[in-house]
Target: Sulfotransferase
Amino acid sequence: MVEEQPSSIILPKYLQEDELSEDVRVLLSTLPTAKGWFVNTIYQYQGFWYSPKQLQGLLNCQKHFQAQDNDILLATQPKSGTTWLKALAFSLINRKNKYPITLNNQDHPLFTNNPHTLVPFLEFDIFHVKDVVPDLSAFSSPRLFATHLPYALLPESMKNSNCKIVYLCRDPKDNFISLWHFSNALRREGSNSLDESFDKFCRGINVGGPFWDHILSYWKETSLLEKPNNNNKKVMFLRFEELRMNTSFVLKNLAEFLGCPFSKEEENQGLMDDILKLCSFENLRNLEVNKNGKRPSGIENKAYFRRGEIGDWKNHLSVEMIEKLNDIVENKMGTFGFRF
Ligand code: A3P
Model:
């Protein structure tokens, strides 16, 4: 039995629990449950936590998505910098043929569209409707998609194709604080307490969590420790912190990985700086569309732009909380050669 949601929360469509297919309802009745941050009940499916509607999108996507070799997938956990990565990748791959970077006349689609509109999530925006196989013919090549799915749950055709995956993670301390603020921004009244949310996050109970397994699922695809002969050009592994501190360097590498490197001429014209300005937190946050616009789900675009900084956790977490999260990272991820 799927529970009703309290009316105090503005739920994005992909979290709403109406319109579930019968097979998803049957599956739900067999899965472990926990109290969610956004919805009453979340379900653990193959080690990761989802709302019923997300699970439906996930299964639909696994069943029907057919990858093409030149697809590009941006993979993240919620609140690790997805919006920023979408803006950067969209600008990079479309700059030559479709959307030249023009800062002055504001012609570029990012001036009038939230990045989530330009780069849809596979499981939330495309494959979310029950029993519907979406028509993707309108996507121009290379097709650019996003996902919050861990590597293991990606559609098989994606894992077996030559498509490229960019994974962006973020220090879990900042990731947690950002998620906690976001969950409360979606509430009309009341709030998730910091302590209760922190406890859940540390137990891996948040949508798409546990965070450590999510990060490791992509890390293992790139890590030399895991695969000594790894010559993997499929997954590019990025961190929010390096993107924030060394943006030009990362952007250049990202362009190369995506198969659209900067030419000497573009470098001399300062195109990299233009893309960075276009996609900067300050620019995007102050655009009309992101100040007053809404996603079709009802979420206000401004909820995606809070501070955009490294280290806001220092303003919220106690010494014990910091130690606890650091210990989790060390214990769960250290043996795989992963550290923040
Ligand atoms: P904070 O809540 O710490 O400010 P996501 O896009 O995955 O939902 O992540 C949202 C986080 O990325 C928020 O972090 C948000 O402010 C930050 N962010 C959004 N756009 C950004 C940009 N252009 N540059 C840097 N950070 C950005």
Q: What stands out?
A: The chain has 16 helices and seven strands. Residues 76, 78-84, 174, 178, 181, 279-281, 284, 304-308, 312 surround adenosine-3'-5'-diphosphate (CB under 6 Å).
